[in-house]
């Protein structure tokens, strides 16, 4: 199992490439990259140098004493250096899209482009309270609608819930105008988790961005609209001269 020893934490990763444009997949809240590796990695590795990784404290990565949005982004920066990747397309889904925004703000030189799927730079009061409650609930019972997390993974999950809830009081929206990387923003018109409104906010604030809403799709359009999403992605890469 490929593990990168990044000073304070061990990060699981997979890397499949033949000298094409690097693309990094950033998974959702409390999850890992295993499903993406099983169901999608083959196609992506035919078109990109694909990197999949698990956030600290989740999946196959090691635990840490500290968890925060900047630390998750720093782990990705260190992982790219570990893999000798100068810059990459950062593809974030849901929580992974929040992480991708933070990464693009903190390490712009490492970001060739952004793909933001089913995510936002801010949340409202109801959503904030819901995410915080999910984290608190995880202290006594497993979260995510019956999805089981190992006890050692609960702390990272709680940190991600709190970081997402914190987007109400500390939104990324005022900062994302600084993002210069070309950005493809996608959302599902029937998304009951994040809603499409956050994607509209992203498109209005990230200067060099393109928005596409799959009206009938729910949360995670890359999986729910595979063929259409992949065509959109490749068209976007050609438009920004990365294919």
Summarize it.
The chain has 243 residues and is α/β, with parallel strands linked by helices. It is 37% helix and 19% strand.
What does this structure look like?
37% of the residues lie in helices and 19% in strands. The radius of gyration is 17 Å and the shape is globular. The chain has 243 residues and is α/β, with parallel strands linked by helices. The model has no long low-confidence stretch (mean pLDDT 95). The protein has a single domain (3-125, 173-239), classed as Alpha/Beta hydrolase fold, catalytic domain (Rossmann fold). It is built from 9 helices and 8 strands. The chain has an 8-stranded mixed β-sheet, with helices on both faces.
Output the helix-strand order: EEEHHEHEHEHHEHEHH
Principal-axes shape call: globular
Biggest sheet descriptor: 8 strands, mixed
Tell me the fraction of residues in β-strands, as a range.
15-25%
Query: For the terminal residues, how far apart are their CA atoms?
Result: 30 Å
Report the CATH topology name.
Rossmann fold
Mean pLDDT: 95
Low-confidence stretches: none
Briefly note the structural class of the backbone. alpha/beta
Whole-number total of structural domains: 1
Per CATH, the class reads Alpha Beta
Number of contiguous helices: 9
The helicity comes to 25-40%
Compute the number of strand runs.
8
Can you tell me the CATH superfamily?
A: Alpha/Beta hydrolase fold, catalytic domain
CATH architecture: 3-Layer(aba) Sandwich
* Spatial ordering of strands, largest sheet: 1-2-4-3-5-6-7-8
Radius of gyration: 17 Å
